[in-house]
Amino acid sequence: MKGRFSLRLNDGYLSFGNLGEKGLLGELSDSRVNLDNLIAHDVIEHSVAHRTKKYVTYEDELRATGAIEFVRMGEFEMYKEVSTTMPWDYHRELKPVPYIIGQHLINERHVDVDLIRYLIKEGHSVHNSRCAAMHVAWGYLQKQHYYNDYHGRAAHDFHFIKHNVPQIIQEFSWEEVYTGISVYFDTDKQIIRTSFIRKYEPWINHY
């Protein structure tokens, strides 16, 4: 896999891509924040469009949670992750997956019925529980197809980004005038290249 992503810094807080506060990863100086996993998750387990989008929906996050299950098999408690990702605002119902996708997921038995039961017991509505399980299954299937059912390659890509995050973050401390950093990566060739997104200062000659 190869591509680009960016990180933005505002008043010491790091965010992913163009998401601003909606993509807030945490305070740069807070060692308790696992930036390695968070950034690798945004790059590898979300869709490619996530790297440039200006907003992220509950449905996006649920599909990314399904992708986690493929990329990081058995490394986290998926049911709890899905429950905490879902909306608790009862005025906001989850949007269902497209009809043709839903029929395929049901016909091929990709939907985890036990997950639906768990979410209902956790207090989520039947509608939201069913939609969530569908989005999770769709996200898993999308990532599975992207990697041609090769889990090892997906795990390799995730850990390559994760391994390089500390160095990328460290580069923030080497630059004084910036708003962020752009990262080019090629996981097959083991390449990481960074360039700074500089803050415009009127007294600097930009020509």
What class would the helix/strand composition place it in?
Answer: alpha+beta
Counted by DSSP, the helix tally is: 7
Give the total of domains: 1
Total strands: the figure is: 5
Distance between the termini: 35 Å
Low-confidence stretches: 201-207
Query: Helical proportion?
Result: 40-55%
Q: Taking Cα atoms only, what radius of gyration do you get, to the nearest Å?
A: 19 Å
Mean pLDDT: 89
Biggest sheet layout: 5 strands, antiparallel
The proportion of residues in beta strands is 5-15%
H/E element string? EEEHHHHHHHEE
The main sheet orders its strands as 3-2-1-4-5
Shape: globular
Your description of this structure?
The longest helix is centred in the middle third of the chain and has 21 residues, at 126-146. The protein has one domain (2-197). With 207 residues, the chain is an alpha+beta fold. Helix 1 packs across helix 2, helix 2 (58-71) packs across helix 6 (126-146) and helix 5 (113-121) packs across helix 6. Mean pLDDT is 89; it is low at 201-207. The chain starts with a strand and ends in a 10-residue tail after the last strand. It contains 7 helices and 5 strands.
Features:
about 210 residues; alpha+beta; five-stranded antiparallel β-sheet; 7 helices; about 45% helix; globular
